[in-house]
């Protein structure tokens, strides 16, 4: 964190080329959650900005500069005041084949310009709400062949859901209105996209940082990741690029070639899930180890979360000891990660299972649950994901 400007990089009067970088979760109190530039002519090429925060310019704050951005990805950045992604003051800015999504500010969710000249071509500006570009005091913007939420005047511009593959995966899904809608004659048009894939796959370049139809990028999610057997899980393909076939490996000896399969896990265990996608541009796989957790059912289930707030209809407690006091014989306590700073005593049921290390929504195991001590006066205790501090 930088309390002034530039949470990751501060530029003063120089002209660096910043290439093939990822900036995520940086913070600056003044401006430019990731990058702050004063003077000079920086070039930002093939870079992604995720969840950066600044006073003005959630991702980039530029002052008295000439700034070129090509194949840029801006997702989930925020500014306390101006320019959720970009803030320009006395800047000449050129933005080419870039994608903006879900950036947020009080004014100008995508771009805020003060006395600046802004050119954007083949670019997606799709933030929420649709306050994409705000121009103040002598600023001008020439936006062409771009997809702007809420519409923006300019040759070749459209206003339509770009059909991003995911919230931060700004690759284009099949049927995107941005496919083959860009301008091939744009000055400085890059030969490759953000993935390094050939930029023009069909006859016309796509709008945005990613060209549709390049090498597939595997990505998936599941609607349920933890539970007792039999556990039915619905898997959702979120892959980008052109995909013609899917191969799922659920880690229990079962596979599927459906795009969005459902699978039932019948035995307790932790399962690795692998999705391999294939298309004209090649193949790609995503592996999620321990993604599905199926636990043995011992009896009644009680949840323990340090604030006593659980997203479940089952009983919820703010301490492990309190849950033990209410647990029937054979009960299972599902406990969130972190230090509970408790001395635990078990002296009631003949069997109890304490399953620790889960995240706040009890969807998967992430870390250990820590307690000070455990005393067993009566009964049988099963522990999983519990660390007893020395």
Describe this entry's structure for a reader.
The protein has 1 helix and 37 strands. The chain is mostly beta strands. The strands form 8 sheets. A 6-stranded parallel beta sheet has the order 1-5-9-13-16-19, with no helix packed on it. A 6-stranded parallel beta sheet has the order 2-6-10-14-17-20, with no helix packed on it. The longest helix is centred in the last third of the chain and has 7 residues. The chain is globular, with a radius of gyration of 25 Å.
Helices, strands, pairings?
Blueprint: E1 9-12, E2 17-19, E3 22-24, E4 27-31, E5 35-38, E6 43-45, E7 48-50, E8 53-56, E9 60-63, E10 66-70, E11 73-75, E12 78-82, E13 86-89, E14 92-96, E15 99-101, E16 111-114, E17 117-121, E18 124-126, E19 133-136, E20 140-144, E21 147-148, E22 220-222, E23 226-227, E24 231-237, E25 245-249, E26 255-256, E27 262-265, E28 269-279, E29 282-294, E30 301-304, E31 316-317, H1 320-326, E32 331-336, E33 338-339, E34 343-358, E35 369-371, E36 373-384, E37 386-388
Parallel strand pairs: 1-5, 2-6, 3-7, 4-8, 5-9, 6-10, 7-11, 8-12, 9-13, 10-14, 11-15, 13-16, 14-17, 15-18, 16-19, 17-20, 18-21, 23-29, 30-31, 30-32, 32-34, 33-35, 34-36, 35-37
Antiparallel strand pairs: 22-24, 24-27, 25-26, 25-28, 28-29
């Amino acid at each position: 964190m930088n309390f002034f400007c530039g949470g990751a990089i501060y530029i003063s009067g120089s002209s660096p080329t910043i290439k093939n970088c990822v900036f995520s979760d940086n913070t600056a109190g003044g401006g430019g959650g990731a990058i702050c530039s004063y003077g000079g002519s920086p070039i930002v090429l093939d870079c992604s900005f995720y969840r950066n925060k600044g006073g003005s310019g959630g991702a980039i704050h530029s002052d008295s500069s000439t700034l070129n951005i090509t194949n840029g990805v801006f997702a989930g950045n925020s500014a306390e005041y101006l320019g959720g992604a970009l803030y320009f003051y006395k800047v000449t800015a050129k933005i080419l084949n870039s994608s903006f999504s879900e950036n947020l500010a009080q004014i100008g969710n995508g771009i805020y310009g003060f006395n600046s000249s802004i050119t954007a071509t083949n670019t997606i500006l799709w933030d929420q709400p649709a306050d994409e570009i705000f121009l103040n005091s002598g600023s001008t913007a020439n936006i062409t062949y771009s997809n702007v939420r809420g519409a923006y005047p300019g040759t070749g511009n459209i206003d339509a859901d770009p059909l991003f593959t995911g919230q931060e995966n700004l690759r284009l899904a099949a049927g995107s209105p941005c496919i083959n809608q860009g301008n091939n004659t744009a000055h400085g048009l890059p030969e490759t996209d953000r993935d390094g894939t050939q930029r023009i796959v069909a006859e016309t370049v796509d709008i945005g940082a990613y060209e549709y139809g390049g090498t597939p990028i595997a990505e998936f999610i599941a609607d349920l990741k933890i539970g007792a057997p039999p556990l039915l899980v619905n898997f959702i393909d979120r892959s980008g690029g052109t995909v013609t076939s899917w191969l799922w490996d659920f880690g229990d000896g079962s596979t599927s070639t459906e795009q969005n399969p459902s699978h039932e896990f019948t035995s307790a265990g932790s399962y690795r899930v692998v999705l391999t996608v294939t298309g004209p541009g090649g193949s790609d796989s995503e592996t999620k180890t321990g993604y599905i957790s199926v636990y043995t059912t011992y009896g009644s289930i009680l949840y323990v979360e340090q604030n006593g707030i659980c997203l479940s209809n089952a009983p919820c407690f703010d301490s492990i000891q309190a849950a033990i006091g209410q647990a029937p014989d054979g009960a299972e306590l599902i406990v969130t990660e972190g230090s509970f700073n408790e001395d635990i005593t078990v002296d009631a049921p003949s069997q109890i299972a304490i399953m620790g290390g889960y995240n706040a929504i009890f969807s998967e195991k992430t870390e250990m649950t820590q307690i000070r001590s455990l005393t067993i006066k009566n009964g049988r205790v099963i522990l999983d994901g519990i660390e007893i501090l020395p």
